[in-house]
Amino acid sequence: MYGSPQLQPPPRQPQQRRRRVTQIHATHQTRRHKLTYWELGTQISVNCLLAGVAIASIVQLLPAQINQQQKLATLQGEVDKAEERVDQLQAEFSRSFDAYGGQKLMQEYTLKVNPRQRRIIWVEPSALEGNSAPAQQNSN
């Protein structure tokens, strides 16, 4: 006021510079964020596309898988029957070539009987009743 120098406000250049630096820094950050968002969006889109392709593939392969399972079950049943038949034939084969069972096989396949054995002939009871009546009449 009376000859003293007046105080002047400090120069605004550093504040403007700070604002400008923060604005530049903020724009860099927003650019980074935007790039990150685009990258994430692209990754999610690609993953969804891959998931859709995988689901479509599974849907196409599922009927073929079910058909093959049915064929496998049918073949497994046939294999079981064939194994039973093979077991039966193996048992018959081993029985046929048994050294001790030769006479039994001869008796089964032919009418020859060992002379030391007696032949037993089974007769139905109705046949016995018809034959016994004439025998009783003849004995009187």
Secondary-structure element order, as H and E? HHH
Cα-based radius of gyration, to the nearest Å: 53 Å
Class by SSE composition: mainly alpha
Alpha-carbon distance between the two ends: 180 Å
Helix content: over 70%
- Main sheet record: none
Please report which band the strand proportion falls in: under 5%, 5-15%, 15-25%, 25-35%, 35-45% or over 45%. Answer: under 5%
The chain-level mean pLDDT equals 79
Q: What is the number of helices?
A: 3
Number of strands: 0
Write up what this structure looks like.
The chain is mainly α. Helix content is 76%, strand content 0%.
What's this model, at a glance?
The protein is mostly helical and 140 residues long. The chain is 76% helix and 0% strand. It starts with 12 loop residues before the first helix and ends with a helix.
Question: Tags for this entry?
Answer:
mainly alpha, disordered C terminus, single chain, 140 residues, 0% strand, rod-shaped
SSE inventory with pairings:
Layout: H1 13-96, H2 102-109, H3 125-139
